[in-house]
Amino acid sequence: QVQLVESGGGLVQAGGSLRVSCVGSGRTFRLYAGWFRQAPGKEREFVAAINWSGDGTWYADSAKGRFTISRDNAKNTMYLQMNSLKPEDTGVYYCNREGYWGQGTQVTVSS
Asked: Would residue 61 be called left, alpha or beta, if left means φ above 0 and alpha means ψ between -120 and 50 degrees?
C-alpha cells in the first residue's frame, strides 16, 4: 500500500523557519515530486518541485529565494525548508509523488 506522510508543520512567527518532511512507503518513487499548499477558502496551489536526481528544482514565484526543496532517495523522503515565513504562507502543506497525495501538515505563520 502506497503511503505518504507529511510532518514538521506547526505555528511560527513571521520571519521564522520550518522544515516539513514527506516520507514515502509502499514503493520507490523515481520521478518528480512536489509540494503544494492550500490556504483556507482557497484552491490548492503549487509551491515547489524536484526531479529524481535532485539537480532540477522549480518554485512558485511566492517561494523563490525563501524555500528550498530537497530529497533523500535512500530514505524515500522529501523536504521543504521554509525561511522568512510570512502570514500568507499559512496553509496545509501536501506532498505529491507520482500522483499520490499525503494527508497534509498544517503550517501557521502569525504576524
From this structure: alpha
**Per-residue confidence of the chain (111 residues) as pLDDT tens digits?**
899 999 999 999 999 999 999 999 998 888 889 999 999 999 999 999 999 999 999 999 999 999 999 999 999 999 999 999 999 999 999 999 989 999 999 999 999
Backbone φ and ψ for 74, nearest 5 degrees, come out as -65, -30
Q: How many residues does the chain have?
A: 111
**Chain centre to alpha carbon of residue 87:** 17
Question: Can you state the percent helix, strand and coil of the chain, rounding each to 5?
Answer: 5, 55, 40
